[in-house]
C-alpha cells in the first residue's frame, strides 16, 4: 500500500453478577420490559457500522460509539478530539496495539466544534452537515450537480467517505476534498491540493501546499502569511529544464 501525507516535519474488569436462582424467570421478564421500554433514538446504532442513513446522526458526546467503521475495520470516521472541549469530524486509520490512530482527512480542521451537543446529520437537501452546539453549520458536503439527494453516507474500505443517492450513485466523496493526505486509489488533479498541518499534533491548516500548476506540473509551495513561492521544482527553470514533461 501507499500513503502520501504532507506534513512539515492508546483488562476489562468483569461486572459483579447477582444471581437469584428462585426468581430467574421473573428477573428476566423484568429485564425485557425495561429494555423494550427504552426511548427510541435516531442517532447511530450502539453497534457501529460503515453507514449513516438519512434521518440519523452522529453525536460528539459519544465519540467512541457514534463512529463509522469501514467493512474490514481499516478506517474509522467520527469525532476526533483536537483540543480541550474541541472536536473535528475526521477519518483515520484505526488504532492497533502497535500503532495509534492516524488521521487522514478532516472536515473542519480549522473550525473545531464544541464537545457538547455538536453533531453530524443529514440536511433537508440530502447533504450531510456538521453542526456546532448552537446549531450553526460549520461544514457541509457540496453536491454541485444535484445528481439526486443523498440518502446514505458510507465509509469505504479505501478510506473514502461517500454520499450516495437512492440509486447508489456517488453525489459527494471525501476523496474530492483532500486535506493533507493522499490515500491509495485517490487522485490529486486539477484544482485539488494537499495542505500541510500546522505542526505535529496540530491538524489545522499549515503553510505548505502540493498542487498541479497551469502546466500540469506537480509543485510544492510555501504559502505563508506574508509570501508565497514555489520551492520545488526549481521555479527559475522551465518545464523542460525541470524534466517535468
From TrEMBL:
This is Bulb-type lectin domain-containing protein. The keyword Membrane applies. One of its GO terms (cellular component) is membrane. Keywords: Membrane, Signal, Transmembrane, Transmembrane helix. PANTHER family: OS07G0415500 PROTEIN, RECEPTOR-LIKE SERINE_THREONINE-PROTEIN KINASE. It holds the Pfam family B_lectin. Its main location: membrane. It is a single-pass membrane protein. It comes from Nymphaea colorata. It comes from the Eukaryota. Residues 43-176 form the Bulb-type lectin domain. The keyword RNA-binding does not apply. It is found in: Membrane.
